[in-house]
Fold this protein.
Amino acid sequence: MLTQHTTRNIMPPLVVADEPQAICKEVSAMVIVMKHHASAEDIGRVVAHIQELGFQAHLSSGEERTIIGVIGDERAVEPENFAMLDGVERCMRILHPFKLASRDFHPEDTVLRINGVTIGGKTLVVIAGPCSIESREQLMESAHAVQEAGANLLRAGAYKPRTSPYAFQGLGIKGLELLRQAKEEYGLPTVTEVMSPADVPLVAEYADVLQIGARNMQNYALLNAVGETQTPVLLKRGLSSTIEELIMAAEYILSHGNHRVMLCERGIRTFETATRNTFDINAIPVLKHLTHLPVIADPSHGTGKWDLVTPVARGAVAAGADGLIVEVHPNPAKALSDGGQSLKPEKFVEMMKQVRVIANAVGRDM
């Protein structure tokens, strides 16, 4: 089986993951870098040799260079087996436990296109909206406010995982229907959380992006299920998870052929009690260095306090985040969940102004 991933320019390129890509479920632990302008015949011979050895090939082709991933358990095969072939510049093993997410496998940045919105390129994206869908009026007012302020996607939860079983759990299917109405009225692609593997097909019918919340980051059945849908996924870092654990969770999704994955730093649990979580700004450049996946920052959950959202958002953009996800509510004092970290619409407008300055300073557009 040969799976092909094509870009216009591989060095330095952007992988555009517009469409679902097929890839086998075995891991890749070796990459072959072809020489500059290697011929199609050279590439074909390398692919044929890979297949003769019982492996599969994942081809990333550009105008200047081609990278071939060797898929399968190739521990018994030495890189030299491929390095001697015509057109091969070098062959190397991927040393990280995560393979498909690694820059060794895809040195170029992955860029997602979701209903006209580009995520992972030069443009900084902003995902905004209420934590929970509470009513049609509340959702529509929120959608209007974030659209007017320049947000690119609308976030709102129909299903809410809560620490207390007595807290508001979301409107469920009614919330999904309201989310679809908001998209139709305001034209913003939508992001909402999915909590159960059984709910994935239903939520994917209504939402443009499936969010995996922090509490479900290592729910492997759920990760497998969203990987099978080929719907874009926003994967949030777990409450006490390491960066490697976050990337390995993404690897589950990628291993099912869904390359439309975004990683989200949303703060982790530490000994500090001054804020809800400790926003790990280090994670942003580390993730950008280790993986080719877009990185989204969540200053709302990262701090838990509305007055800290804007300064942390500024820092996240300066650190290299590809986007922000921010909670905005027309009346935070009456919010059924996370009101204390939600911005009022006018505060969100001010945040957008300040973030735009930082984005422009680091070479990003908004």
